[in-house]
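Translate sequence into structure tokens.
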Amino acid sequence: MRLYFIRHGQTDWNNEGKIQGSYDIELNDIGVNQAVELSKRVLDSNIKFSKIYSSKQKRALKTAEILRSNTNVDYIPLDGLEEMNLGDWEGLSWKEAIDKYPKEYDEWYHNRRYSKSHNGESYQEMLERVLEALHKIISINNDDVVIVTHSAVIMSLQCYITDTPFDKMRIFQTDNVSITEIDSADLMC
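Result follows.
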């Protein structure tokens, strides 16, 4: 079974370089247009899927809704697929987070898999909840599915699957509405 992970469309905070995390931001006009173009790309490709699952955050839900309206495949909001909670850093630029929380940022930066942002969660905590949601999806589906989610989710999964240190996760950086294909068998360890 193939899982097609799609990062949501652009938000104003993406455009402004602000940390979004768990903060529930809407797609901007560019993000809506990206989701429409994504739908066309999916329809023109040979990607076949039976369901769309989505993070419950507005930016992912709107992307999934647009994809559903163009493919006629239902979408299901599912707990656990949300972006990493970056606590008090949310709404700041990365430079502002470094300036305001230098000690916490340094600790997080050098041990990001297990360290937490100020009042946030670690990549490991996020990974555990995402894997739980994915195992549920895999257990109730036989056909390929789409999962509309977030950048940190997709990068963390790729680090997990390839045994890449989390401080190297930027090699898996995703653009808005990018598609990342993962075999479900790689997630069942």
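Note: The domain at 2-187 is CATH 3.40.50.1240 (Rossmann fold).
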